[in-house]
Amino acid sequence: MRKFTLHQMKEVRVIVSGENRGFVTELLDSIGATGYTVLAVTAGKGHGGLQHSHFMFGEIESLEMIMTVMPEDKVEPLLAALGKLFDKHSGVMFVSDVAVSRREYFTKPSETEPA
After folding, report:
1. Residues 10, 70 contacting (CB under 8 angstroms)
2. Could you read off the pLDDT of 64-82 as tens digits, one per residue?
């Protein structure tokens, strides 16, 4: 049986309007994130009040959450670029500490330290 070791990473969740999803996913690709998951957000409540997605109006009226896991050193470049997006558009980002058992899924081979 394989023994799993846990490795510290950062989980990032970005919630933006659907029209800004491409900006976020292209940014993740450009900083070297190895993958992400996009989920449709049907409703939520924040400082702007209650929000509902209106899918019949297309991506402009939808909310989406883009989730990824990455090494800590990639978070700062992401923050800098998302700050520019959030200066002009609504959205929010959450960063949490997580531990993953398969570090190689979230790093490129040159970034993985020997076990």
Report:
1. yes
2. 999 999 999 999 999 999 9
pLDDT band at 115, cuts 50/70/90? Answer: very low
Element (H, E) at 88: helix 75-88
Q: Is 57 helix (H, G, I), strand (E, B) or coil?
A: helix
Side-chain half-sphere CA neighbours of 84 within 13 A:
7
- Rounded mean pLDDT, 19-31: 95
Per the structure, the complete domain to which residue 35 belongs is given by 7-107
pLDDT at 101 over 50: yes
For residue 102, the domain's CATH number is 3.30.70.120
Measured CA to CA, the distance from residue 61 to residue 82 in angstroms comes to: 20
Domain count, the chain: 1
Residue 93 lies in a domain: yes
Secondary structure E strands in the chain: 7-17, 37-41, 43-46, 49-52, 63-70, 91-100
From start to end of 23-62, where are the E strands?
Answer: 37-41, 43-46, 49-52
